Amino acid sequence: MKFARLAVGVCLGLAMAGCADPSDISTPTPPSAVVEQGGDAPSASGYTAFGAQRVWANGMAVTVSPPSSLKPSDTSFPESPRTAVFTLTVVNGTKTAYRTSQLVVRALVGGEPVAEVRDSVQGLNGIAAAVTEVAPGAETVLTLAFAVPADPVRLQLVVEPNGANLEPSATFEGTA
Predict the structure, then answer these.
(1) Does this model's pTM top 0.70?
(2) DSSP string of 31-89?
(3) Contacts (Cβ under 8 Å, ≥6 apart) of 112
């Protein structure tokens, strides 16, 4: 019975779509913040803006959100005047499962490493807590935080989906 209802619904939807006036149908614009990388080499500019998506030839894609700023709790480690929080969306467009334990994310300010912040009170448990398997065609979302000075700084986030210092990699950059 459920199948019959579903089949009727699909047929009705298709029939209605066929009757639509083409001038009333708007074509969605593709995302403007997608940087496709044809190979494993970095793009010509070397950096991807926060909020953009980096897509590699194998289908793996990573999006790093623009940072939000948080005041660290009393239990955060390491202590810092401010925390820059990023949401990473990893889309597995490959043909095999992806384990997030392979993912390495590093932050740099002025070329110097910046510490990742763990703040369990605010749900920031670090990259080490990101242990999941992402099926082909699926995605997962991770939230990471880094210690930054009180004033805004130019920050680079290096994302290495296959492990430290392994290709491919992407460097996202912006003000945090």
Answers:
(1) yes
(2) PSSEEE-SSSSPPSSS-EETT-EEE-TTSEEEEEPPPEEEPPPTT-BS--SEEEEEEEE
(3) none
Core vs surface per residue 96-132: b (16+ CB within 10 A) or e: eebebeebbbbbbbeeeebebbbbeebebebbeebee
Question: H/E/C letters for each residue in 19-35?
Answer: HCCHHHCCCCCCCCCEE
Q: How many CB atoms lie within 10 A of CB 26?
A: 6
Q: For 30-55, how does the pLDDT look when each residue is reduced to its tens digit (9 = 90+)?
A: 333 444 443 333 444 578 999 999 99
Q: Which of 47, 55, 1 is nearest to 168 (CA)?
A: 55
The closest of 103, 88, 91 to 161, measured between CA atoms, is: 103
pLDDT in tens, 135-162: 999 999 999 999 999 999 999 999 999 8
Question: Nearest-CA neighbor of 162 among 38, 40, 33?
Answer: 40
For the chain, the distance separating the N- and C-terminal CA atoms, rounded to the nearest angstrom, is 55
Q: Structure tokens of 63?
A: 């999006």
Q: Does the bond joining 136 to the residue before it have cis omega, within 30 degrees of 0?
A: no
Q: Are 80 and 36 in contact (CB under 8 A)?
A: no
The Cα–Cα gap between 40 and 173 comes to: 19
Q: Measured on CA atoms in the order 160, 165, 168, 174, is the torsion positive or negative? A: positive
